[in-house]
Structures are given as C-alpha cells and as structure tokens.
Design a protein that fits this description.
Blueprint: E1 3-5, E2 12-14, E3 16-19, H1 28-31, H2 38-51, E4 55-57, H3 66-75, E5 84-89, H4 104-118, E6 123-128, H5 137-150, E7 153-159, H6 163-176, E8 181-187, H7 199-206, E9 209-213, H8 251-268, H9 272-281, E10 286-291, H10 296-303, H11 312-322, H12 330-333
Parallel strand pairs: 3-4, 3-10, 4-5, 5-6, 6-7, 7-8, 8-9, 9-10
Antiparallel strand pairs: 1-2
Helix pairs in contact: 2-3, 2-10, 3-4, 8-9, 8-11
Protein name: Aldo/keto reductase
Organism: Chitinophaga alhagiae
Domain NADP-dependent oxidoreductase: 16-322
C-alpha cells in the first residue's frame, strides 16, 4: 500500500482509507448505505489491515453515533498506535439548539462522545464536518487548539468548506500560531470535478491534503449505470441514501464518462470502479481516497484500484469525457492561463 504525506503535516496516510458510514444502519438515510454490525465490521477491518489500510474514517452523525460504536467494537484489541482514526463533528446531533455547529460548547461535547464510542483517548484526525457561519472562526480554532494541546486530537481538518472558509481559517491559525487544518475532506469524482476549480489550487498553494469522500459518486461509477438501461434499484441512489444529489450530475456528460470508463476498463483488464479510483489517485493534492463497502467482496474489489497506474493517454481521455464548462469566475480566469495556470495533471 502506498502512503502519502497528509498536507503540511508529518503524518503519513495510506492512499486508500476505509469509510464506516455503512456501519450501524441506525437511521433510514444510513440504512440505504448499509447496516454492518460489529462482527462483520471486524472482518472488514481485518481485510483492510492485511492490505495495509490502517486509516478509518467515521463521524458522530453517522447513524447518530452508532457507526462510531461499531467501529470502536471492531478495533477493540488492536494496537492503537497502528491505527489512524478520523471522525467529525459540526452537524446536528440531538434536538437542543446548541447541538449543532462548531462552537466551543458543541465541539467539547461531541469530542467526548466520540472518544467514548470509539473506545480511545485520542483522535488522529478531527474534522469540522462543515463550515459554521454562526460561530466566530476564532472560537472554533481556539477550541481545536485546546484539544490538540490536551492530547485528545493529533491533527485537525476541514470538510465541505468553500475556498474562503478554508482560507480564512488558515489565516487565523497563522495569525495566532494555532494548529492549522492539514487536510480537507471533499467530494471529488469523475462525475463531478468542481474541486479542481478553486479548492485544488488552494490546497496546492497552502499544502492542504485532499481526503476524498464518495469517489464513486455514491455508486454511480461502480459499473451498474449504463446508457439507455434502467437505473439500478438496489443502490444508495435509488433508496434515497445518496450524499450526491441527482441534480449535481449532468446526465449527458456522465454517460460520456461511463462510455470512456468502459473503454479504459477493457484496455486495462480492470473494473470501471477500479479505473475511476485509480484516476483519482493520479490527481494533485489527493492524499487518501475513502472507500466504503457493504461486504467483503466490495472491499476486495476496491482494493484492486492500487498497484498499477493508468497511462497519461487514458487519463486525458477520461478528463475530456468528464469535462464540464466552469462557472464564473473560473471561465473568465481560464481565458488567460499564463496568469492563472491550472494544476499540472500530466
């Protein structure tokens, strides 16, 4: 398993990490993802560890804490310093007014709950799951600095931030000498490449590692979606559990991308999903891709995305098929690439 440095930190992470949103199935939304319980979770964790994946991602809101509980049971007995655990807070957890956001009140409450459910005394990578526009950024970052200094958190990260959200946060951390976000957990896939417009150049400039969620666009790039064929009814999209809304995926571009994925899969002898994941591994700033699996077969298939590499020609063809016109101001900036050079993909 290849390891990469996580942003400007000294932490090395595997290029594939395992997401546990499929654990628990404690709410209607997450049942569409999966309902993996402790024994099956333990088997999946074992397969990951054997393959060199020791980075496990979860969140407090996944099945209202049940995913963290199941993960905690699955890793019980494993050597803690061999594991990299990532969890998140910010989104609504409970009904009281203060049970959401990135306030000191909410963060301190949630970190204690996550530690207890995971059965550990520290979190390796602690994410703000989204930006809180109501809480001063200074309050959020000062609280996270306290958690780092106390030893309860090793590194802090953002997730689903806009460019200015992330840049303002980094500037405040620099101003006060506080811990900075070393990673940004983002949605990025061949079905949606908006990450490249601003967040990727920002990450390159500020050395923020990309941790990619839903790299297969909630299963759309898994190989079951085909032009002029009925949509599969057993996946998360049909069951209402997709974190990627239908309106975000442009149908004509999507099926052009699937056609090209088919061609490249035939050339390489790999599956469509493996090709889509391998494409991501060749993009700038990507430190780790979160793969999920409802069962052992899905997990082992995803592991086949590493250990080989698409050719530059194959990457360029996939880029061309999945390209969409950028919104303003990015289309305007692209009129003069000498002033605004894009990331180097090849």
């Amino acid at each position: 398993m290849e390891y990469r440095q996580l942003g400007a930190s000294g932490l090395q992470v595997p290029v594939l990490s395992f997401g546990t949103a499929t654990f628990g199935g404690g709410t209607e939304f997450f049942k569409a993802w999966g309902s993996t319980q402790a024994e099956e979770a333990k088997r999946l964790i074992g397969i990951c560890m054997d393959a060199g994946i020791n980075f496990f991602d979860t969140a407090d809101i996944y099945s209202d804490g049940l995913a963290e509980e199941v993960l905690g049971k699955a890793i019980a007995g494993l050597q803690r310093d061999k594991l990299i655990l990532s969890t998140k807070s910010t989104f609504t957890f409970g009904e009281a007014p203060n049970n959401q956001g990135s306030s000191r009140f909410h963060i301190l409450r949630q970190i204690e709950g996550s530690l207890k459910r995971l059965g550990t005394d520290y979190i390796d990578v602690y994410h703000m799951h989204g930006f809180d526009g109501n809480t001063p950024v200074e309050e959020t970052l000062h609280t996270l600095e306290h958690l780092v200094q106390s030893g309860k958190v090793r590194y802090i990260a953002a997730s689903n931030f806009s460019g200015w959200h992330l840049m303002k946060s980094l500037g405040i951390s620099e101003k006060y000498g506080w811990s900075r976000y070393v990673a940004h957990q983002v949605y990025y896939s061949l079905a949606n490449r908006e990450y490249e417009w601003e967040l990727m150049p920002l990450a390159l400039d500020q050395q923020v590692g990309g941790i990619i969620w839903s790299p297969l666009a909630a299963g759309r790039l898994g190989g079951k979606y085909r032009r002029n064929q009925p949509l599969p009814q057993e996946g998360r999209v049909a069951q209402g559990g997709s974190p990627v809304p239908d309106m975000a995926v442009k149908e004509d571009v999507f099926y052009n991308t699937i056609d090209t994925l088919d061609e490249v899969a035939n050339e390489t002898g790999k599956t469509i999903a493996q090709v889509a994941l391998n494409w991501l591994l060749q993009r700038p700033t990507v430190s780790s891709i979160i793969i999920g699996a409802r069962n052992e077969e899905q997990l082992k298939q995803n592991l086949g995305a590493v250990g080989w590499q698409l050719t530059a020609d194959q990457v360029k063809r996939l880029d061309a098929a999945s390209e969409v016109p950028p919104i303003y101001p990015y289309w305007h900036q692209r009129q003069n690439l000498t002033l605004n050079p894009p990331p180097k993909f090849y």
